[in-house]
Amino acid sequence: MWRYLYHTRYGLLNTRGSFWHGPIDWLGIHAGQCRDLLMSVWKNFGYNMLISHRRAAGDSQDLYDAAEMGGDGAGPMRRFFNVTLPLLGPTLLFVGVITMMDISSSSPSHT
C-alpha cells in the first residue's frame, strides 16, 4: 500500500495534483525525511489529539469568563491566544517531544 501511495509515477501523492513542479521520489533518500515525518504525524495523530483534548477539557471556565469580562472584553481569538494557548503550552511541548522521539527512533538512518 505504501509503495503505491509513494510511487513516483503512479502514486496517489503524485497524481492528485500537487504544488510541486514535478513528481517527487518519495521512496528516495532526499524525500525520506519528509515521508517519515508525514507517516509519524499520521500514526500519532489520534494519541496526540487525545492528550490535547483531555488537557483542554480540564481548563477552568473561570479563566475564560474573566478574560471575556475584563476591561476590553476579549473576543474568541484573543481568548484563544491569551488563555487557551498558554494553558496548552506544556502539553504541546510534551506531544512535540514524544513525536520527535518517535520519528528519530522509527526512521532509518540515511548516512
Walk me through this protein's architecture.
There is one protein chain. The protein has five helices and no strands. With 111 residues, it is mainly α. The relative contact order is 0.12.
Keywords for this structure?
mainly alpha; 111 residues; 2 domains
Describe the protein's topology.
Elements: H1 2-6, H2 12-15, H3 32-57, H4 61-69, H5 76-106
Helix pairs in contact: 3-5
Quick overview:
This protein is mostly helical and 111 residues long. The chain is 68% helix and 0% strand.
How much helicity do the residues have? 55-70%
Radius of gyration over C-alpha positions, nearest whole angstrom? 20 Å
Alpha plus pi helix count: 5
- Derived from helix and strand composition plus strand pairing, the structural class reads mainly alpha
Determine the N-to-C terminus distance: 26 Å
